[in-house]
Specification:
The protein is α+β, with helices and mostly antiparallel strands. Helices cover about 45% and strands about 15% of the residues. The protein contains 18 helices and 9 strands. The strands form 2 sheets. It has a 5-stranded antiparallel β-sheet, with helices on both faces. A 4-stranded mixed β-sheet has the order 1-2-4-3.
């Protein structure tokens, strides 16, 4: 699996083909006729329109879903993309929510202090988008760029037609949550994109051999902050591998079940599919405590989770050691963090829970390499698998009080109800699905 993942990462041009990289946050501009094409989207050329109907039939067969209605489809000009993405971003992530995400990422050092997400993301995504499906207005668009081959158009259509089938069957607007600081939302998006990529690869495997089409402007993605790049690519690499593993385990029926009843709950499950379908390892529920007494007068700027994916990126960038970072991030049980502002100071408090005491020790050892302004401490003895991390100019009394409050948070019991592979309409619970120690 690790070798296949490396091959897929190395061949981004295929994995990201047909991708709109921040897909949940890319609806169309509001329009008067939601069932048709919005203003500025022109119909497909007749030949491509006919080919779309053929590809829809092929996509239905490959995905095992039938279209319930026609899929409105058209062309968007490359020059119009930045403005469309910027408006879509404002609609899906209002300024206050985007600012909260920015504060959280900067508190961890996952994006540069100078980076303005509201300006940066539209430019990045416009450089990468080859096509998109809009789950709010229910139409498909291919981006017209100069000199692209027809084969790229067809890959775009297959990938996005898979999204249309997902939407018509599972209602993607309700399925995907657009919270950049939610690890569960990241996992759901990875499922959606991984499923469409699986269909795309299946379709490509059935075509005559030929050179893979190249996407435009991959240099922008290569230069993106590692967290941004890792989060956006998750669905097209590990999401694909997750869906492939699920289908191998229980066929299309089990893959449909992930959408209809039991989606992956963490990036950990996307990275390790067996933790969803075999030896279930759901996140440990952790509630964030009110810290009004510990931090009087402080303003909360952001709250969320890093998950295994985010922790791996954080440690890899701090240590320069991918193997160490991935090993330390593995064994993740759950986490929550919050960022506060008080007296002009930005304060990060982070609560992490691990599968075993050994996993907690491994995280502490790796996290101590983050830098001098990070304080990494084990929790009290009653929570030996917990690690509390603080960053920022904390005053000693504040740090002690917040550590005590986080150490006192009661960890919930993870659900850990594995899917019933014999009949996914119901779930079964067994001791095999519960990690040691619970």
């Amino acid at each position: 699996m690790a070798t296949l993942r490396a091959i897929l990462r190395a061949r981004r041009a295929l994995v990201l083909t047909a991708a709109v990289l921040l897909w949940p946050a890319f609806p169309s501009v509001p329009q008067e006729a939601p069932a048709g094409l919005p203003e500025g989207v022109s119909p497909l050329p007749p030949g491509l329109g006919r080919r779309l109907q053929e590809l829809l039939a092929e996509t239905e067969t490959l995905r095992g879903l039938k279209a319930k209605r026609a899929v409105a489809s058209g062309i968007v000009e490359e020059r119009d993309l930045p403005a469309r993405i910027a408006q879509a971003l404002r609609e899906e992530l209002p300024p206050e929510r985007l600012q909260a995400a920015e504060a959280g990422l900067k508190a961890f050092g996952l994006i540069p202090e100078s980076l303005d997400l509201a300006g940066y993301l539209p430019a990045l995504l416009a450089s990468e988008v080859a096509g998109y499906y809009d789950p709010e207005r229910h139409y498909l668009a291919v981006v017209r760029r100069g000199g692209e081959a027809r084969r790229l158009d067809e890959l775009v259509l297959v990938h996005e037609l898979a999204h249309a089938l997902q939407d018509q069957t599972f209602d993607l607007q309700r399925f995907v949550a657009d919270d950049p600081l939610s690890d569960a939302a990241t996992a759901r998006t990875a499922l959606v994109e991984g499923d469409a990529s699986l269909v795309m690869f299946d379709w490509l495997a059935g075509q005559a051999a030929g050179p893979a089409p190249e996407l435009p402007a991959s240099k922008e993605m290569a230069a993106a902050p590692p967290w941004v790049r890792a989060t956006l690519e998750l669905g097209y690499v590990d999401g694909y591998l997750f869906c492939l593993s699920v289908r191998q385990k229980g066929g299309q029926k089990l893959l449909d079940y992930t959408f209809s009843q039991d989606p992956p709950r963490s990036s950990e499950q996307i990275l390790h599919p067996e933790k969803w379908h075999t030896r279930r390892d759901d996140p440990v529920p952790l509630s964030w405590p009110g810290l009004g007494r510990e931090l009087p007068g402080a303003r909360k700027l952001a709250e969320g989770q890093l998950g295994e994916l985010g922790i791996g990126v954080l440690l890899r960038e701090a240590t320069g050691d991918r193997e160490l970072a991935e090993a330390a991030a593995a064994g993740w049980g759950g986490d929550r963090f919050a960022v506060y502002e008080k007296d002009g100071r930005r304060l990060l408090a982070w609560l992490t829970e691990w599968d075993t005491e050994a996993d907690a020790r491994e995280l502490r050892e790796a996290a101590r390499r983050l830098g001098k302004d990070w304080a990494v401490e084990p929790a009290e003895r009653r929570w030996p698998r917990r690690v509390v991390v603080l960053r920022g100019p904390w005053r000693p009394a504040e740090a002690r009080a917040v550590r005590a409050a986080l150490a006192a948070v009661r960890a919930g019991r993870p659900d850990n109800r594995a899917p019933d592979l014999a009949g996914p309409a119901s779930q079964s619970s067994s001791s095999e699905a519960t990690p040691a120690g619970w």
